[in-house]
């Protein structure tokens, strides 16, 4: 059922001025929806995006495919058995990232307080925007309409007094839904929800909860944190608070984040190191662009690698000085990756931490002369071009990021054996 038929009733829920208003914007079946938008022959048909090999995994399932029980993270072989007529498409991550940037710019038009969670979802604190743009439901409705008009894609948005409640709300009426859960009667509204919807409670914990006659948020509400401690350990108090809708975590923007990074899970093992490095470079570019946009610099570079056996390793290095330069971070990240004994890769990611306070002063540091200044101009130009024309409009290679001093060595190292 569409959201517009329900909204008049929900508009009666008005956020008190002293309450925070948080939105959770979640794109509907994002990868599959992009494919269906761009290919008319896929509309109305079950679509699975993901790896097509023997160990392939579903990255996204269209709602037509979900009717057959298909879902993301399911082995592709199982999804094929459930829906033999599904159209299977390999992911096009460059296109998805391009759309993600467009959507995030739309979200940022409502508030600068945006915390991206992944390529297709974000929290937005619109408390400070209400005087200008209206109440949370008005802002959410405007965002949904603009996302659909500008991208041809639908988003489901939850409105709540905290992050946890907003995220719960966004999932209640998918796809193309708008759900408001206000602070009045909050615990009662949450009480019927199954405990499986709780952040941090996985299938095994659900089984233990069920065995203890705890099946809903209401069951958690009626137990004391002390009673829950034996079942849920040190997280008992947190789960008890969340069951009541209590969550005081702020929306963390890139200007306030303790770390910034990106990672990607492949839906088939990647056996070519150069292909993995190309993805790692893209993560470095996105992460350093976010540093510059937030006026931050990082001192610590962390690379995360998960191999085909699902063994996960992280390596880190501390830079001589904080930086937001793509070439400096890329040199460190690539070195960390190459120090890892290569095995087929399932996930690759980079994280930047040790973030300094917001940068102030001139565009270039006094030490930015010669090649360093040229690198900064390249970063600024790349950011500007991508911001105006999208993520596919310009790209860099690892060779283009190496310095004159080590370019010959780097170009040789980039060639596959």
Describe the model.
With 417 residues, the chain is of the alpha+beta class. Among the domains are: 30-93, MutS, DNA mismatch repair protein, domain I (3-Layer(aba) Sandwich); 188-243, Orthogonal Bundle (DNA polymerase, domain 1); 260-412, DNA polymerase, Y-family, little finger domain (Dna Ligase, domain 1), CATH 3.30.1490.100. The protein is built from 18 helices and twelve strands. It has helices spanning 7-10, 30-38, 63-66, 76-82, 93-108, 130-133, 136-151, 163-170, 186-190, 203-211, 217-222, 225-232, 236-243, 273-294, 326-338, 371-389, 398-401, 407-414; strands at 22-27, 47-50, 58-61, 87-89, 114-118, 121-125, 155-160, 178-180, 260-270, 298-307, 312-323, 345-353. The protein has a five-stranded mixed sheet with strand order 5-6-1-7-8. Strands 9-12-10-11 form a four-stranded antiparallel sheet, with helices on one face. Strands 3-2-4 form a three-stranded mixed sheet. Strand 7 (155-160), helix 8 and strand 8 (178-180) form a beta-alpha-beta unit. It is globular and about 55 Å long. The relative contact order is 0.10.
Write the layout of secondary structure elements.
Elements: H1 7-10, E1 22-27, H2 30-38, E2 47-50, E3 58-61, H3 63-66, H4 76-82, E4 87-89, H5 93-108, E5 114-118, E6 121-125, H6 130-133, H7 136-151, E7 155-160, H8 163-170, E8 178-180, H9 186-190, H10 203-211, H11 217-222, H12 225-232, H13 236-243, E9 260-270, H14 273-294, E10 298-307, E11 312-323, H15 326-338, E12 345-353, H16 371-389, H17 398-401, H18 407-414
